[in-house]
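Milestone 3.1: sequence recovery, worked example.
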């Protein structure tokens, strides 16, 4: 049986400085998004011993782009203009006292997501949070999840972004950053299915989608 594969490129090497940008999903998260972007850039510069592209370079490129940087193709386009190999882009929104972040690492050449993660935090220590996030995106391992569903065909989203398709009721997500991810399945004739999946190695998970009424 054929599988629909999500193939991730190799992550950025330790001596490459990615372009970094955290977007605010809502006005309440705007200030925190700026602070987290700054903290992540500081961690990246310290680890890579490089200082370009600057925050001003990245922000200018995003403002002048005619697309949304949270989309891989757009992030890659911006990355090309900034002459970087990878773009780290996130979207932050405020949920009560917590902040929910979806973070992706985009390979500029392939225009594909290398890794992604989703995390909810209440911390005010942006430096510490940024250090943890950077390590999870670039230094830690990845896992693989085989999805089995009762829908033969459908679209699979991870952390809010479409990544692959169900084929004959199966799909494989490879190279996913360790941790918890939101998986969504959209299939004709079924209700949209959303669940959290814990990635800690290789696993197979079966999902039963409810028929659409």
């Amino acid at each position: 049986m054929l599988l629909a594969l999500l193939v991730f490129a190799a992550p950025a090497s330790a001596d490459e400085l990615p372009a970094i940008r955290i977007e605010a999903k809502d006005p309440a998260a705007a200030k925190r998004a700026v602070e987290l972007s700054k903290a992540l850039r500081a961690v990246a510069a310290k680890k890579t011993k490089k200082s370009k592209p600057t925050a001003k370079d990245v922000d200018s490129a995003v403002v002048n782009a005619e697309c949304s940087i949270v989309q891989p193709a757009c992030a890659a386009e911006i990355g090309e203009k900034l002459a970087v190999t990878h773009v780290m882009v996130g979207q932050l929104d405020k949920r009560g006292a917590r902040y929910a972040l979806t973070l992706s690492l985009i390979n500029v050449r392939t225009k594909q997501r290398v890794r992604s993660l989703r995390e909810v935090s209440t911390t005010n220590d942006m430096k510490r949070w940024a250090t943890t996030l950077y390590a999870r995106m670039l230094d830690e391992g990845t896992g693989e999840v085989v999805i089995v569903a009762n829908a033969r065909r459908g679209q699979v989203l991870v952390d809010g972004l479409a990544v692959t398709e169900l084929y004959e009721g199966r799909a494989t997500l490879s190279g996913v950053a360790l941790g918890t991810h939101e998986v969504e399945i959209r299939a004709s004739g079924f209700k949209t299915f959303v669940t959290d999946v814990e990635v800690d190695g290789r696993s197979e998970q079966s999902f039963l989608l409810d028929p659409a009424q």
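Confidence is low (pLDDT under 50) at residues 1-10. The helical segments are 30-48, 55-64, 72-82, 126-138.
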